[in-house]
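In the previous chapter we treated chains in isolation. Here, by contrast, the input contains two separate entities that must be folded as one system, with a combined length of 814 residues.
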Amino acid sequence: MTARSLSFCCHINRQRTFKEKQIAHSKKHIAILGSTGSIGIQALEVISAHPEYFEVEVLTAGSNADLLIEQSKLFKPNTVVIKDSSQYQKVMDALDPMDIKVYTDGAVGDVVTMDSIDIVLTALVGYSGLLPTINAIKAGKNIALANKETLVVAGQLIMGLAEEKGVNIYPVDSEHSAIFQCLMGEWHNPIEKIVLTASGGPFRGQNREFLKFVTKSEALKHPNWDMGAKITIDSATLMNKGLEVIEATWLFGLRLDQIEVVVHPQSIIHSMVQFADGSIKAQMGLPDMKLPILFAMSYPNRIPTKFPRLDFANCAQLTFEKPDLKTFRNLALAFEASEKGGNMPCVLNAANEVAVSKFLHERIGFLEMSDVVETCLSKIPYIQTPCYQDYVETDKETRIKALEIIN
Amino acid sequence: MTARSLSFCCHINRQRTFKEKQIAHSKKHIAILGSTGSIGIQALEVISAHPEYFEVEVLTAGSNADLLIEQSKLFKPNTVVIKDSSQYQKVMDALDPMDIKVYTDGAVGDVVTMDSIDIVLTALVGYSGLLPTINAIKAGKNIALANKETLVVAGQLIMGLAEEKGVNIYPVDSEHSAIFQCLMGEWHNPIEKIVLTASGGPFRGQNREFLKFVTKSEALKHPNWDMGAKITIDSATLMNKGLEVIEATWLFGLRLDQIEVVVHPQSIIHSMVQFADGSIKAQMGLPDMKLPILFAMSYPNRIPTKFPRLDFANCAQLTFEKPDLKTFRNLALAFEASEKGGNMPCVLNAANEVAVSKFLHERIGFLEMSDVVETCLSKIPYIQTPCYQDYVETDKETRIKALEIIN
């Protein structure tokens, strides 16, 4: 579309009141927390395809020193952090000669506050994303949030801080990115409800008898999305959708009864918003995390890509069904935890992290994961308005309780 | 959603740069051209459900004096026009005592310029919408455009005028309203293509042998939408979709190759936009013209309604297929006319208006409608850059030619 044709567009763009200002394409400086994970790797792919828009400022990794070194040689960040201190010297030896600063362990929480960073992409897995996100928000950095557990655990705290600091949180989860895209130009219009779509995972339509015996490798085969191990298991148990429901309540300021989960096995519609007039907007496309990652970093501008396009004329059909909450109890448990509020979503998350890890180590069966979560929710003391320290205690206590239940 | 929860919404609404200003809910003063037709009647239903937002300023009708009088007693407009001068006295007798000004015939082109009007809803059928729309734009009135023929016939002229006068054109057609809604907050982002969905009409999947013998009453049964006779026949021949393609090129400043037509028999997805990053946005809902009518009058605000909601969990499936251009030749002819440009879309429209009218009078068969259009497109002299008078001449000449062919 040329500038000329844009100027014809219903003439709306001539009305300055309604026009969103296009941000000049100055480079955005990105910090990627968790650069060697699935989201981190895809973010770097996106960045390397659009070097005119992005500059990598910081990379952090857990223990994959080799990949972190490789990435750093390519993207030349200012600073890297390798969490595993046993790998520190190796990374130091490789990158120090290139004038890249190297830190270890506790440094992730500090490097996110660097002046030169515009956006922090938090792609850490689970609870570990919480502290660096808090620090980044305190330092006034906009957040591209791929770590949904941060909002699940401490949504009230995070959103309160973000409001105080005037920081934007751009969702990276494909569902929340879809909602966010549908809300562009409509921030002033009341939301009636949102519809979070769920693929249903690899075991959609199965019963509990079947689920009792599914293996780790069966659970790791997601029909549509290519993701990390933790989130793939969460997708198979529908806990991922439960975490997304809780994330959405915070991100979009919604009541639980404004969120509907619909199973949509094709994963073409990534989620929908229904406004107060009854109109529904959906964001759609082939399942590819690179698109929401890119958009979280380029908002409000869309950067042209060569990602494969959806061909509607050859897209046979889109189907929808209700989720089976009796078979996939994790989703029901997430609704319950969100309803209770306080520290209960934190309990849900910690118990689930332990359970998934034990399932991945083949220590418990598929259905036992929900048992662990349910028991923890009933045993850990309720705190209505937790402070940061309460979350830390709740997380710790829950993990101990979950391990007790399993052993 | 409460004001408080809105303030949490990704914190985006705190960024004044990206925030669309909510228009204060001062009443909008509406002129409805064609108030006794299908769109006009539905517009008045919408207005009567939301008297706090809208005030009826002008109503115009063709010959249905009784309904115009009834509507006027209810909505108390400032001015009415009854085009059929034989009905003038009747309307005058009924409304003059109520202090409502009554005009006839040529007055439609004048009343649209009244100072008190904010938005002109042009719900006239066919070519007759052109002149009043031009006058309204010249008077600086925003247009809620339900008369697609206006843009088909004279898109270049209309959009040029609208740009000159800084006038907004809000589409009422459900497809164009869908595109428009998807573009909110994205006026600055390049469109890769739009996908106009088509129900396929009552004869989807049929062959030409079958179509040869379909009757007027069969063609008037649209599977999803409740509309006027002309547009219902146009939907059965797919000419409606062809006219919409041409309308979309002008409304959204698109090249013809940026517009794809996909048959979607359920009419749930009302149309889609694909942006340059590959992301697709769709607007969806139950087929109900009242929603796009309301939105064209309330933009950029959404007014809460009690329209029936779509239930996704019980929405069995959405399907898509390519349109059959060999059987439904009108769509191919519309693409051809748009490709040629100049006065050819005007020829297409005039020939089609005559053909549909003759089909509705059972003077020609279903397939002959395309024959009339095709012959006119090849016989009427081409004008590359028509002025207003050229459109008038082309329209007149084409109607004569079409009648010649039929008789």
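The two ends of chain B are 62 Å apart (CA to CA). Confidence is low (pLDDT under 50) at residues 1-23 of chain B. Compare these points with the single-chain example from earlier in the chapter.
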